[in-house]
Amino acid sequence: MKYLLQLSLFIFLFLFWIILSGKGDIWLIASGAVISIAIVIIATYINLLDEEGHPIRILPRSFIYWLWLLKEIILSAIYLSKIIISPKLSISPQYVKIKSNQKSSLGFSIFANSITLTPGTITVIAKNSTKEIDVHAITQETAKNLQTGKMDTMVSWLMRNK
User: Which residue segment(s) compose the domain that 62 sits in?
Assistant: First the structure.
């Protein structure tokens, strides 16, 4: 597993270097490879390379999760647009506590950030010790959607908790 982490970190760093350089010059490609290898060696030497810091195991599922999250963001944006445009739909701000089923700090962080990315909800306080998230929701419906646990279930699926 250690070599797989090293290889994936090298590929990520090298591709990032190539994207940022924007040129196919042999000097830039060679120096990018050397620097990427040096960073991987240093990260390995100081024990910085671990599963939680570089979670390659969730990569295959992350594409499906991102598509699902994008769908949720779009649906929430449409819902909020209707509230803004129509004077009949009133807001009813809610402050709710959401209990998370995440087993890792990474899963908990992804869950809290996904709440904030979704329009109409924002994570106010995330308590990793109790796995509770205080959320401000713009309407009662957005708060209820969070309390159903669908997002928490999707993050658990991403992290393979369930």
Answer: 58-159
